[in-house]
Automatic annotation (TrEMBL):
Organism of origin: Zingiber officinale
Name listed for the protein in its UniProt record: L-ascorbate oxidase homolog
Domain Plastocyanin-like: 83-196, 208-346, 427-563
Assigned protein family: Belongs to the multicopper oxidase family.
MF-aspect GO terms: copper ion binding; oxidoreductase activity
Length: 591
């Protein structure tokens, strides 16, 4: 029947599942999307056959003999990660970096829709540590989200095992360290989720699949950057741009002439939007954060903080070495770096300069963003077409307007949402909510609309209800591009434009083929609007992807609540959950 496993990852480990695409055979297994349903179904069959004690005994004996697939029909992939400090030289200057199993960036996660991922993280740093999974929705399972609002940190010398399922997801994502300012030291890596066999994909299999983790970088250690922020100042301008942890010409991607390749690109930087281009070649956009897109061709493409996408690139030029260029956008000083796109039969470097890209042009970027559309006929993680969900025909039940600002509070630079600058509590919010610990946070501690008043400090949590269908407008009155991410969800970007949002702005919404994604940019003096069904119970972080702004308060938590208190809506607290703060010493749940 395939490798033994269990729904909590406690079955015997099969090394064949660790890091490859081996699939467990499920021939003859009943459908077990909800194993408890199957158990009760068998139980009622026994009752219908008769109420004798011998039959009931036979039923419980049957439970012990159920095949492993009943407890977990989807394969498990096991990882063990050791997180350490180590010296790195990405811009030619020695720095203290965060390594995972000695690697910078960290090891990739390669998986298939619905796979179960078991990652045992050992923290060998001298301070607490957490990893979060940008774009992984953690269906019914915010316990695994890996941000301080949901998880107690892994203490120095300790470990924590993340147990999560990539439920109904495909696409390109990344993970990163979420505490303090660790993200400025590394600890990030790529996540690739392939479609299941027999699920149609709207393009032929590429010859190879490359991941590019791009981002701005500082030469200063992350501890020095954190000290600057803690002192109430803003960060200096970055020192460079990296591709997969390396600087100028630090990466070479080899291709065969005439073949097509997939490039998955994520902006894992701290401060700047980036533009990507490949000399002499066209970028055919095929996927954005789990959504198959209309296959538009671009000569260069803007990727904002925290965003991910996929391109197909065909090696259809004379066999030479070409430049892959990544440069900063909307900055007075333009930083750039270059990698090599090398034909296997290359005759040398191509002539001519590396391709230039846009610099400060906002309208150019806005028009490009509007051109990204959902492929309505393509399948997503399921066989039915993406467009079978008519998001634009559903009436919204609530409108939330969120305005970013940069107040000075108590003499220090802070950042805020609707005038509230978030401060962490002494206990993770999800843990406090589960144990009903009073005084950690208050629901409604952030308003639904901008107040335009003075900024203030608060552990801000917004209340919401399961199955609400919300319209969220991100309003940016500042002079810099904003990038917003919502954990636990994918949403439709129905509109974006310059100026002030009003109710009349809805007339221009795209209610047919807006792309679904988890991170959206908001241009200076502009707004972006999204539609989002609240179908994932939990406490979810809504944050700026500009990491200094996030660190200094431009974030809050959305509590999506279901009164049913059912495992159908939300998983119970993990047995291995770390407890800290006011929850220290409590029990999780019986073994």
């Amino acid at each position: 029947m395939g490798p033994e496993s269990s729904c909590c990852g406690t079955g015997r480990k099969n090394p064949a599942l660790s890091h490859d695409f081996h699939r467990a055979s499920n021939v003859g297994c009943p459908s077990t999307s909800d194993p408890l349903n199957l158990v009760f179904h068998v139980f009622f069959m026994v009752l219908q056959m008769g109420k004798s004690s011998s039959l009931l005994v036979s039923f419980f004996s049957l439970l012990l003999l159920l095949p492993s697939c009943v407890l977990g029909e989807n394969p498990y992939r096991f990882y063990t990660w050791n997180v350490t400090y180590g010296y790195i030289w990405p811009l030619g200057v020695e720095q203290q970096g965060i390594l995972i199993n000695g690697q910078f960036p960290g090891p990739p996660i390669d998986a298939v829709t619905n796979d179960n991922i078991i990652i045992n993280v050992f923290n060998s740093l001298p301070e607490p540590f957490l990893i979060s999974w940008n774009g992984i929705q953690q269906r019914r399972n915010s316990w695994q989200d890996g941000v301080y609002g949901t998880n107690c940190p892994i203490p120095p010398g300790g470990n924590f095992t993340y147990v999560m399922q990539l439920k109904d997801q495909i696409g390109s994502y990344f993970y990163f360290p979420s505490l303090g300012f660790h993200k400025a030291a590394g600890g990030f890596g790529g996540i690739r989720i392939l479609s299941r066999p027999m699920i149609p994909v709207p393009f032929p299999p590429p010859a190879d699949d490359y991941t590019l983790l791009v981002g701005d970088w500082f030469k200063a250690n992350h501890t020095d950057l954190r000290y600057i922020l803690d002192s109430g100042k803003d960060l200096p301008f970055p020192d460079g741009v990296l591709i997969n942890g390396r600087g100028q010409y630090g990466n070479t991607f080899t291709v065969d002439q005439g073949k097509t390749y997939r490039f998955r690109i994520s902006n894992v930087g701290l401060a700047t939007s980036l533009n990507i281009r490949i000399q002499g070649h066209t970028l055919l956009l095929v996927e954005v954060e789990g959504s198959h897109t209309l296959q538009n061709a671009y000569s260069s493409f803007d990727l904002h903080l925290g965003q991910s996408c996929s391109f197909l690139v065909t090696a259809d030029q004379p066999p030479m070495d070409y430049n892959i260029v990544v440069s900063t956008r909307f900055t007075s000083t333009v930083l750039s770096t270059t990698a090599v796109f090398r034909y296997s039969n290359s005759g040398g470097r191509s002539s001519g300069p590396a391709p230039g890209g846009p610099t400060i042009q906002i309208d150019w970027s806005l028009n490009q963003a509007r051109s990204i559309r959902w492929n309505l006929t393509a399948s997503g993680p399921r066989p039915n077409p993406q467009g079978s969900y008519h998001y634009g025909l559903v009436n919204t039940t609530r409108t939330i307007r969120l305005a970013n600002s940069a107040p000075v509070i108590n003499g220090k630079q802070r950042y805020a949402v609707n005038s509230v600058s978030f401060i962490p509590a002494d206990t993770p919010l999800k843990v406090a909510d589960f144990y009903k610990i009073q005084g950690v946070f208050n629901l409604g501690s952030i308003p639904d609309n901008p107040t335009y008043g003075s900024g203030y400090l608060q552990t801000s949590v917004m209340a919401s209800n399961m199955r609400d269908y919300v319209e969220i407008i991100f309003e940016n009155g500042e002079d810099t591009v904003q990038s917003w991410h919502i954990d636990g969800y994918s949403f439709w970007v129905v509109g974006m434009d310059g100026g002030q949002w009003t109710a009349a702005s809805r007339d221009g919404y795209n209610l047919r083929d807006a792309v679904a994604r988890c991170t959206v940019q908001v241009y200076p003096k502009s707004w972006s609007a999204i539609y989002m069904p609240l179908d994932n119970v939990g406490l979810w972080n809504i944050r700026s992807e500009n990491w200094a702004r996030q660190y200094l308060g431009q974030q809050f938590y959305l509590r999506v609540y279901s009164p049913a208190n059912s495992w159908r809506d939300e998983n119970p607290i993990p047995r291995n959950a770390l407890l800290c703060g006011r929850a220290s010493g409590r029990r999780t749940r019986p073994l």
